Amino acid sequence: MKIVCTDLEGVLVPEIWINVAEKTGIEQLRLTTRDIADYSVLMRKRIDLLEQHGLKLKDIKDVIETMQPLEGAREFLDWLRAKTQTIIVSDTFEEFARPLMAKLGWPTLFCNSLQISSDGKITDYILRQADGKRHVVQALQSLNFKVVAMGDSYNDISMLKTAEHSVLFSPPDTIKQSYPEFAVVNDYKTLQKTLARLLD
Fold it and tell me: In what order do the strands lie in the sheet with 122-126?
């Protein structure tokens, strides 16, 4: 049996932190795992910026409520889930994800969580597991699944390297150039054709 593991932000929905940066005017919040490969460095920077600017979890959630999936993402995901089991494997957080999961038809999501103070500030983040995306693939492989993985950023690379088949979806040039071994697609129509071939 084959199963698909896909990233969330940049593949199915816009980058949450970029949207927060645009709403708040805090340009440094535009940085994502496409820019900074070390996730812990990136998250510490984000939490420090939120503290400096007095932003709380509610401020982030208010932005997320206004976001929509990427154009065509819901239809693509519906097609994929009808074809095979699909798990979204993301470094986002339970506290952020709910509105987006509703708009995607409640797919299965494996992600992380946040530590929130009594006054609603984001004080830390809690990884479900270090290098969790790779471990998800390995766990599925231990159950005799063949894994097809999709992602777009540095934090997806260990997952893509571990899976039997891997696809980069609309990645930045730096990632394409660094990992030429992965197939690259830039739209859902081509992605659907690529996955149909890999899954059949």
Answer: 122-126, 108-116, 86-93, 2-6, 146-151, 165-169, 183-185
Q: For the residues 32-58, what does the mean pLDDT come to?
A: 91
pLDDT of residue 82: 96
**DSSP H or E segment with residue 166:** strand 165-169
CA distances from 17 to 10, 35, 43, 57, 181 (A): 11, 12, 11, 12, 29
Query: Which residues belong to the active site?
Result: 7, 9
Would you state the CATH architecture of domain 2-12+70-112+128-199? 3-Layer(aba) Sandwich (3.40)
pTM: 0.91
pLDDT at position 12 is 98
